[in-house]
Amino acid sequence: MFRYQDGDNYYRFSWARQRDYRRLVECENGVFTSLAEDSVWYVPGESYDVEVIAEGSDQELLIDGSLVFSVTDERLSDGTIALHS
pLDDT by residue (tens digit) across 43-63? Predict the structure, then answer.
């Protein structure tokens, strides 16, 4: 999670092998909006380098140096990082 402000306001990247998706969502005031999604599995036991670049209204998510998602969203402009499981 990034630009985390509180439990109701943040961006979250999820990668769920059992459900067959990678997903970037925005949560604003507890309401979720899907920003990007695809269906790529991860390999259990393999390590991945996940990088989030958030500059202004632009957010990019890279895995092992390759761009996965690039979105523009102006709703949350600041915050910290957090882990979600």
Answer: 999 999 999 999 999 999 999
Is 77 within the bounds of a domain? no
Q: Report whether pLDDT(39) > 90.
A: yes
Pick from 18, 22, 64: which is nearest to 44 by CA?
Answer: 18
Can you give the CATH number for the domain in which 62 is found? 2.60.120.560
Query: Hey, how many other C-beta atoms are within 10 angstroms of the C-beta on 50?
Result: 11
Whether 80 is covered by a domain: the verdict is no
The H-or-E segment that residue 74 falls in is none
Residue span of the structural domain in which 7 resides: 2-72
Strands 66-72 and 2-6: unpaired
Mean pLDDT (the chain) is 94
Question: How many other C-beta atoms lie within 10 A of the C-beta of residue 3?
Answer: 21
Our count of domains for the chain comes to: 1
